[in-house]
Amino acid sequence: MQRSLTWIVPLVAVLALAASATGLFLPGGDGPYKFTTLRGQEVEMFGRGLYRYDTLLVGAALRGTDAVTLLIGLPLLVLTYMKSRHGSTNAPLALLGVLFYFLYKGASLTFSAAFNPLFLVYTALFSASLFAVIISMTAFDLESLAKRVQPGFPHRGAAVFLFIAGIGTLLIWLSEIFVPLLAGTAPEIMGPYTTLFTHGFDSAVITPAAVIAGVCLVRRKPLGYLLTIPILILCTLIGAVVIGQSVAQTLVGLVFPPQIYIGMIGSWIVMGGFAIGLTASSFRNLEPPSGDRVRS
Fold it and tell me: What's the pLDDT tens digit per position in 41-82?
């Protein structure tokens, strides 16, 4: 484990704890209210706590994400960090996957949440997570990692999953923005925001990363093994986040059409379930390095 990670990862944990706990528990605000955007669209604002200047849809989603981060994300970060420090051979890959999640969360809060008093905390979380991911990835010996792969590794299944997850995400987001772009209008989901960060970030980063990982996996390239397991862990956590967001949105009275629950929310949950199984299968088929006596 790189020495610099011994302080960067705890920093990520502290920043994420501060951001999530404040977002979930900070009181204040008069509750939802109507707001007319610069484009003349009337939207309902969240009006409570840290996310009072976000829409009801986004504010509730952010609180759902905070709950998942506190209950699942942070415990996984601490667990994989401690196991990495104690010499587990598989924990660094798991840690990288969890760091992918915190990088995604930090970037989302920095660039998409309405400006609030924790903006610098979000920026610091994004920065710390980004460099933790970079340092962690450069620490791996790809050839040694590839030699640990056993014949039962789910090459085909994981590759198919990555292609579906990456391209499917792109198609879902395009379905929301393609027609408004052709019509010269803004997507209805944009509300008072100036742009759609999640749509852009997923399309520019997540989709290419998943496709590249899938191609490398099919070709048995070492980079494929380094990317696949962390992306699977990210998809697992995103599946949990979608559940948390849906619960939080239901609690504030938001009800979506059946096709949204089935097509969008349901697909993410199903993908998260598949990601759990593929992650477990991948780890089962990674043997410890030769001569390593430390349990994985």
Answer: 899 999 999 999 999 999 999 999 999 999 999 999 999 999
Please determine, for residue 119, whether its predicted confidence score (pLDDT) is greater than 90: yes
Measured between alpha carbons, how far is 270 from 62 in angstroms, rounded to an integer?
21
Burial per residue of 230-250, b for 16 or more beta-carbon CB atoms within 10 angstroms, e otherwise: bbbbbbbbbbbbbbbbbebbe
Burial 151-173 (b: 16+ CB within 10 A, else e): eebbbeebbbbbbebbeebbeeb
Question: Which amino acid would we find at residue 131?
Answer: F
CB 91 within 8 A of CB 84: yes
Host H or E run for residue 296: none
User: Residue 277 contacts by C-beta under 8 Å, 6 or more apart in sequence?
Assistant: none
Q: Which two structure tokens, joined as six digits, stand for 222?
A: 């070492």
Q: What is the mean pLDDT of residues 190-216?
A: 94
Question: What's the full length of the chain, in residues?
Answer: 296
Q: Is 71 left (phi over 0), alpha (psi -120 to 50) or beta?
A: alpha
Q: What is the pLDDT of residues 225-248, one digit of tens each?
A: 999 999 999 999 999 999 999 999
